[in-house]
Amino acid sequence: MLAYLQDKSVAWAHDARNGKDPVFKWLKLFLYDQEHPILRETPNPALPDGVSSERLVSDYLRQLYARIQKLIVSLRLSAEIGTDFWFSRPAGWSADNQEIFAKAVREAGFTSKENDNLFFLTEAEAAALYLMHHKDFEAVSAKPPKPQPPSSSLPHRIDQLTECPFVKPEDGRILVCDIGGGTTDVGAFHIQGTGPNAVYEPLGKSSGVNCGVAAMDAAVRQHVKKQPPHTFGLVRPLNEALLDMICDLKCQFDGTEEVPIPVDVTGLITVPPGVLRKSLNSTVVAIIELIMANIVPPRPLEPPVSIRQRLEHMVTLHHLDQYEAMSVSWGATFRGILGRAIPRLKFDASYGLQAAEEAIVRKGSISREQSSPHWFIRKDQAVEIEHQNELFLDIHYRAGDAPITIINLLQHAAEFPDANDGDSKRMPPLGFHLQGLNFSRLMRVGDEYCVQVRIVWKVTYSERHAIVKFTAQSENALLGEQEVPLIGYRLVA
């Protein structure tokens, strides 16, 4: 929660709730959908003049950052080594939404210290990390299952759900369905390695949809709005009361209720249980469609566990028959995925980039020479997957030549190669076009040009191969993109 006070200062969390100024809730939704049904049903005030949705989130996170520094970082004896900050974001967000969120995080102060690092992951991954790290996970998973409720009921209470049995821990695979208030994320992962820094590989595509258990909130409010005015008082107190009561309602509702359910302290405002059941069915259908469309099912385990079997005893879902049973593992064990939880690769060779014709600027002249390689991957040194890196090359270009630049890709068996030992192996070169450049802005002497090219590279990995992707830019112009498969590597923790 966040509130802007009359003196333009910011109140945060309980201070915001206990004050008299307008309070903003569901802040993350403001970043990608200000017309989201939750925001329409929740009494959020209009944003103040000059305050964007990005700033709203940044102001909230700035308060969080200050408390982390005070209560956690400042108490560590090794605070000078830096802090790793992890933020989760819905898999359904667009690239623009993700960039806006990342900008809001940075403007809040995260990574303002030189040794700090910032990482982002999907909410399904974050849920997996939490589950593996939870101190009660082993005890919970070891409990015997309770008798199953009738197939006509909706989800039973949370204390019952946490005692569902798990498949044996050595399965090494996990299916995560993170159902939040406004969004739901699904993802499947293959755990590899043991210990506190085990790595994992996504199975299929992490995906999300704009729905969640806040559908119950909306259903309650829509129902109450249709009741006679004498049933309730002013709209604002009613909505605030519902916000206070809705959490208890969600935890206690098990779908077997037959009489209207009170949703306020007086007991005068009630909701038929059928309204709540109906509000959740569409969410469950959307979740199943996400899993069926985006998750690659692991090999069946013995005994097989199917999504259909898991859901039939938990929900009333009339559309379930159209989905085939799909075997999945609910194991993923106690092995962790703690720490950075990012797969890393070690390669059996070093790889470097070399401009075929480097531009050398000396005493007002530009000449071409053979450049020394830039070794961007070193043999036996770990490379983080999906981590973006960059390097710069000064390319020589002569007016009238073909508008293309060649960059050699080299492979060497040594960790610290000698550029002159003759043992470098040339791989197929990278070719990037220069047509989009504004040559009038480049350094020129006669008909000789110096073109500074920014090469952004990152390594991606799947179960079958590793690929390094190169993106070349100059003067904000995209020169091209190329992907090159690499061989001879191993996953490391």
UniProtKB/TrEMBL annotation:
CDD domains: ASKHA_NBD_HSP70 (cd10170)
InterPro entries associated with the record: ATPase_NBD
SUPFAM superfamilies from the UniProt entry: Actin-like ATPase domain
Name this polypeptide is given: Actin-like ATPase domain-containing protein
